[in-house]
Amino acid sequence: MNIITGNKNYLFLRFKIKQVLRIIRKKVILTAFGKANNQINKIFIINLDRQTERWELIKKELKNIPTNVNINLSNFSERFSAIDAKIKLLNNTKINSTYKLQDQYFVDPDPRLLKIIREKEINIELTNQETAVALSHISVWEKIILKDVSNALILEDDVYFENKFSKTLNLLWEEIESSSLDFDIIFLSYKKVEHNPDIKKVSKNLSVPKRGIWWFSGYILSNNGAKKLLSKLPVIGPIDLWINHEFANLNVYLSNESIINQKLFVQSDNNYSILPILSQIGIKSNETFILLDKLKGKNPVFVFDLSENCDTTLSKINTLLSLNSYRAYKNVSERDSLHVKESIKQKQTLLFDAYLGFNLIIDNLSDLINFYPSGIIIIIEEVHDKSLQSVLSNEISTNLHFINSNSKKVFKQVSKLLQIKYWEFNDIKLNQVKIDKNINSEKIQIINKFKYLEHDVNPWIIPIQNIEKYIPYNHTEFEILSLAKPIDGISDSFNKMDLNYWKLLDDTFPSNLAHFTKRNFRLNNSGFEITITNDKLEGKQYSSSAIVTKLPHIYGSFEISMKPIKGDGIISAFFLHRNDPWQEIDIEFLGNDTTKILLNVYYNPGFENTNYNYGVRGTPILIDLDFDASEDFHLYRIEWEYHEIRWYVDNKIIHSRRTWMPTPIPDLPLNVYVNAWITNSEALAGKFNNILLPAILHVKLIEFYKFEY
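Below the sequence we write its predicted structure tokens.
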């Protein structure tokens, strides 16, 4: 990428000074070039037909560099007519014009890019100029094979040679010959990426890159290297980005210093596809999201707990990180561990800010740190294992930290390491149950049509379109991991009102056009009714009612037999809810189409009285029923376990969500609600018309069962 940065006049002045110094200094004779197979036989210079001035300038440069065979470098050079982007480029199987932002992140792991990658997958289309550049290089590789050139120096026409070019190349080439070094490509011109280039110096003259260099403007390519590159086609993305992804498949070396440079003061003809994306980095339209994102400290973070009490410790660390706006993925099953391990092996971009308890990936830490060089690794252990520390310290960076699990300051230490706010919750009990990895699962086919609606964007939601890419998931086939036994059942057909268990609300909320009142609730011979009326109350134009349990519940089966209201603008709901922090699991019917059911989850992290109440839409999905729910009673059930939520209609499963599909599972006690209300959102349920009133929600039965593990 020849993206010009800095003052052009200053860059041009530096170039002219180097030219003057080259003239007055004694010339070094270049020994690396010749006709032998162990020498560089040819120079190919990629130059557009319409840029004759550039060709003349580089020829002049080459004439000033003498070789030991009494000729200068221009005698080894051959102009290659570059493919012009101004000419219409036909579809070519050698180039894949679409690449992903995460491909860019692999080369230059800029943490600002990571934020965007986590929100959504961004496809980027190559510009015509980038395509033309790649095709020009490919054509040169083909020519090397056609002419049976042993080793060739390939140059773009906007380069110049550093004053130490001949001396350094002589030393480099002598090392290659003396050690019979097998190479495919040697970069003489490159620019290291800004963020943690993965380059290892292997000798006085050579380094080996795993990733992390830009520019493809000056490199030596062997005949075998040309064959390998052609076998790896198509090129995906800009060619200097793509070559980084192929380093693992090639014998690649760098000169320890770049001895061919680019004339950055010259206006580049290239048009870079990545620039529009880079210009958006850090820009967020949601002010709340910006404030939450500022809470986040160092990341990504990988926490391994080798102690016996690991579930409790990791649950608290999970809460601590979540409260600091980390997207934290806590391991809950062996399947999840294997998936994360495979993702690392395949060098896939990991979606989360934090990975907790994935002990299976300890063996892959070196791979992990290569991909996330700034990642923080924390190992919690009861007894300090010096041998483990020795092995891991040799493998990875200094971002490795060991914490004694018996210390009372575990969470303070984690907060300090990550530079985040510390929350005092050592005495707070967090709900956590360990999944038995040997539990039998059941695969369920779901044929109901569905539609995801617009959902909130906050640190505790994965954009729905990204779920499949990072967590094993199928929209129509669910692996049900039901671990619990139902106990302590409660069945209420409302022959009378149990005021020890239920209460009627006298309140409302901003998006509701009706006020809830006891007057609009009525018991009948088999259940109860909630009626929406034209009665004005407490500043609202209409009245309705809502019933709620006095005590909250955590994990269980919650079922209702109901007949919702049909009518634009009206919502009938059976749901579990709490505030501070706001968590919720919904079943709702939108009055404008009662042949569908709306399922929703809201998640905010924390514990009792933690004021995290972000979001207005949640993560809704609209599912087709095979009947009109307003015409008769049907059974609707929510099964809520700590790792999974399942929704049923007439005992048939219609939807399931595991953790982070697309939110964590609510993990705090929730109260159970039934209500009917009028929404102010026409887009959600249609435009309300009071001619519909009175409108009645009918309920026959409500049953709850607590889950025991």
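Residues 128-146 form the longest helix (19 residues).
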